[in-house]
Amino acid sequence: xxxxxxxxxxxxxxxxxxxxxGVQCGAxxxxxxxxxxxxxxRKVLRLEYECYQAMALGQMKAxxxxxxxxxxxxxxxxxxxxxxxxxxxxxVIIAVGSAHRADAFAACQYLIDTLKQTVPIWKxxxxxxxxxxxxxxx
Amino acid sequence: MExxxxxxxxxxxxxxxxxxxxxxxxxxxxxxxxxxxxxSYPALAGLKSYMIAVNQQYANEDTLxxxxxxxxxxxxxxxx
Lengths: 138, 80
Hints:
By secondary structure, chain A is of the alpha+beta class. Chain A is built from three helices and nine strands; from the N terminus they run E-H-E-E-E-H-E-E-E-H-E-E.
């Protein structure tokens, strides 16, 4: 089962875990990405997320399908937030349910690493003394 | 032919719009599109990289473009 959502509202870890739960799954692994209060010592006021929604949903579905093909896992949930987030807010939750833990850990790592490389989502970091689109220039 | 181009993230700031229209010769591919864009918006060439998406898929360097395609400039992504 694949559950992909792009949301403007607060993300709920319990909902993502619920989506990948099942009596055939002995392992439920979650990765939660939260907003840090600094980048190399520069104080972060907020992050502003935006996406190319139709393509982002398609890319996330494709990478979830790849993970289901590569790893012995049953369920994947990916929830990504958009809009303005402040330090401590949850930006992304990835949850994986599988019979045994090894494949769930590996799939979870694959999903977040690949999401960061391929899914058309962007964030602008706003500092007290400026702002920058993350990864745009370096 | 006139094509519509969606822009996101820093690309939206560079072209100063979320959607622009540009004129291309019929049969133009993504390589021609990139050259045309970089002539009008030199700051695009200063990015670490950028991709072109056609109909919500990452395109190759020589993907042929049609007037009705959904084309987008994809600057370096930074989700998560």
